[in-house]
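Weekly modeling sync, notes
Attendees: S.R. (lead), two postdocs, one rotation student

Agenda item 3: backlog of single-chain predictions. S.R. asked that every request posted to the team notebook include the full sequence so nobody has to chase files. The rotation student volunteered to paste the first one in as an example of the format we agreed on. Action items at the bottom.

Example entry:
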Amino acid sequence: MKTTQEAYIDFIKRLTHLISKNPHLITVTLSNIFTMRLIGNKTHGDLAEIAISEFVNQYMYDFRSTHVGKDLYRAKEHEEDIRITNEIHNIDFTISLKAYGDGPLQLSTDKNSRMFPRLKKEGKVITGREAIDAVFDDPAFSEFGNINVLPLIYDEKKKRCNMMIFDFVRARENTHEIRYEESGAGRTHPVFRFYDKSGSYICEVRYGDASANALQRGLWTNTKNALDYFTSATGGWIDYSDNLLLVKLFSHALVSTAGGHEKALEILKADIQSQKDKSNLRDRKAK
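Predicted structure, as returned to the notebook:
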């Protein structure tokens, strides 16, 4: 029986393979997702969860996906936006989807503010394999590597997106030093930064007491500064374009009836099936 972490890794491999064979499918989806920024700066993040969940349902025939939803998400002990079932092995796992600009990326909110205080107990510099492993093995770091993060990293100026997967295993194995650094460079609070043997940046834990909000605490990395610790499910950057017709469709949908939506949905289903046929994808079940 596969573990949930193994199931997630298998899913990423399958997703990467699908995209490599049919890049147009993800290009269309990403273009539609980031078009939502024309409606609102944060709209694309919420709709990306729905879109990627449906992408899985339509094009990854061994998997079933459900969008968890914000109310359920807030009630959950762990971070999750999408729940996926591997129907071959009958195992469920969850994914936290992040839509961030190229640069700082939050991997975990550290809701209970445990990581920073745990590191602070060790002093300002933590070195040596034994001491570093003790940190990673501590209950405060129990979520490190157990959060299945799927980031959609975008560069709005260049109209491109990259699905960048952070390698938690390699990050842990290569951490050579954890160093406390004071506020600066736009930061209000201090951080603990993780470095490898060559002095290259891996990730960081931000200040985490009650006065820090969700964007000031937790586990973060930087997609520009930690490239060696990412793999790309999209094989690098994918160019996308705004779909202005989609914005018009949304505006009309919001003032039309469910009957109109039903007719439009039938047309959209036929279009999706056409994409499947062109891509020689097996339709797992009728939608």
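Discussion: group reviewed the output briefly. The chain has one domain: 4-242.
Action items: rotation student to repeat for the remaining queue; S.R. to check formatting next week.
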